[in-house]
Every structure is written in C-alpha cells, then in structure tokens.
Amino acid sequence: MLFKALAISILAFAGQATAATWYFLRYYPASGQQFTSFSGDMAIPTLQQAGTYYLWPGLQPTDGSGVYQNVLDGRSGTWWIGSGWCCSNPSLPWGDGFNTYGGEVVTFSNTLGDSTWTSTLTRQATGDTLSNDFALADKSFNQALFAVELTGVSWDFGPLAFSNVVITSTGGTEASWCNTSPENYNSATVYSISGLSSSVSGNTVTCTIDSLVLESPA
Asked: Among residues 94, 99, 165, 173, which is most buried (max CB within 10 A)?
C-alpha cells in the first residue's frame, strides 16, 4: 500500500496518465523510530533528451499520504531540481529550484524543525543555495528512498550516484536498519554501497553512507 501511495502521488506531480517505471532503494528505521533528517550530495548525470525523468531522494510518511522529495526533473531537456511535497494531504506549493547540468554536484538537506521541514539545495558549481519550508512536521516519516522514476523513457543517463549521505532517526537506539542492505524494489536495480556506518547519541541514530550508486536496471 505504501508503494501504491508513492506511485499515485508522484504520477500526480508528473501529470501523467501512464504508469511510471520504478527503480528505488528504501530504508526503514526500527520500529517506533522516525526519520528527522536526510542529506547528501547528488552527482548530476548527463541528460540525453527531454523526457519524463524524475530522479530523487525522498521521504515517505507512515500514512502513505505523499512523498517529500528533492526532484531532478528532465522534462524540459535541461535538468531542473527543486524540493516539494507531492501531492495532497496537505496541498503545498512546490519549492524553488534551479537548472543544473551533467557533471555537477547538488547538495540536498531536509531537516525537521519545530513546526516545519526545511529543504536546502546547493549547486556546488556556483554556490547558489535555495531553502524552503514545508508544513510537514505532523508527518511521521518512516521511509527514506533513492529513486529513479521514468515515464516513456529508458534509463539512458548512466549511474545515479549519491555521496556523503546522512540519515537520522529518533525514538530509539536500534541502529540495525542502517547496517543492513536497503530494500531493492522488485530487485530492479543494480546498485553499490560503501562506507556504511552508524552511531547512537541519546535516542538519535545517525546513519552515514559514503557512497550509494544506482548503477543500472538489473
């Protein structure tokens, strides 16, 4: 059901009637925990053509009501990246974004505050930074995803690489969720992970991943 909600919400964002092809890795925290931050660097691949390419890290809540994500969008023929909640319950405006190009690196950071989640995107090539707040503090996020979503196009852009990834959860000290392999949806993706470690401070688990790469379709 959670995946169904994710698919419906992203398709609504895309404005597409046809189904997307999915490739994603997913982490769940331990029972009773929720994610409170998600950050890292995304290496921007080379866009081959205009098309419905959505590449993103994101968080999904326990109620399956949508996806909070930083989306690399290829529809115009030039990559654009922006942050937002897709798509209703609540209905929120999409955040700011900017164009980015193959070979660049964009840093993403999503952090829970007192009343909002704050998303910050930084284009390392220029230092340009955008930050937006989203009224999602009442959501309990229990899925962290690294996703490739394609509609009417193939995986023709090469690997999608993330580095310096940090995910935190609160509500317990169990860190095994970090130290095991993520769910590979439908075993659809060839992937590699290196430099995986976890630490615990109080009731906060910090998961660090040096490199996570969605290499290609399986």
From this structure: 165
For residue 103, tell me if it sits in a domain: yes
- Specify the number of domains making up the chain: 1
Q: Do the domain assignments include residue 208?
A: no
List, in sequence order, every residue forming a beta bridge with 200; answer none if it has no partner.
205
> What is the pLDDT of the chain when averaged over all its residues?
92
Contacts of 19 (CB under 8 A, 6+ apart): 7, 11, 151
Amino acid at 45: P
**Which letter does DSSP use for residue 202 in this model?**
T
Q: Which residues pair with 67 in a beta bridge?
A: 86
What pLDDT was estimated at residue 88?
84
| 106 domain-assigned | yes
CATH of the domain at 119: 2.60.120
164: number of CA atoms within 13 Å, CB side? Answer: 10
Q: Which two tokens stand for residue 88?
A: 């209703």
Q: How far is CA 26 from the centre of its chain?
A: 9
